[in-house]
Amino acid sequence: MSQILAIVTLSKDRIAGGAPIFVVEGEEEMQRTAFSLEKMLDANAHDLKNGTMILVKHS
Predict the structure, then answer these.
(1) Potential cystine with 24: which of 29, 31, 44, 51 (Cβ 3.0-4.6 Å)?
(2) InterPro entries annotated for this entry (predicted)?
(3) Residue 42 pLDDT > 90, yes or no?
(4) pLDDT surpassing 90 at residue 50
(5) pLDDT score for 59
(6) For residue 52, what are the CA distances in angstroms to 11, 19, 27, 32, 43?
(7) CB of 37 within 8 A of CB of 44?
């Protein structure tokens, strides 16, 4: 079972849900934020290739 722990996105208007959402200004900031969260949350960052990355905890 996997759980989405956080979402990092360039477009706030396209995202909704129960996970924390981090809205960033550019692609570089998105990757930097996602990779920092990946380490802090002991999760995996997945790039959806649409301006959004999700942080997933795989069990």
Answers:
(1) 29
(2) YpzH
(3) yes
(4) yes
(5) 86
(6) 8, 13, 9, 13, 16
(7) no
The number of helix segments (H) and strand segments (E) in the chain equals: 1, 4
Alpha carbon distances (Å) from 1 to 6, 35, 38, 40:
16, 22, 18, 20
Residue type for 45, please? A
The pTM assigned to this predicted structure is 0.92
pLDDT at 41: 97
Find the domain containing 45 and state its range: 2-58
CB 55 within 8 A of CB 44: yes
Q: Residue 44: which residues within 8 A CB-CB, separation 6 or more?
A: 38, 55, 56, 57, 58
> Per-residue b/e over 47-59, b at no fewer than 16 CB within 10 Å?
eeeebbbbbbeee
Structure-block tokens of residue 13: 């208007």
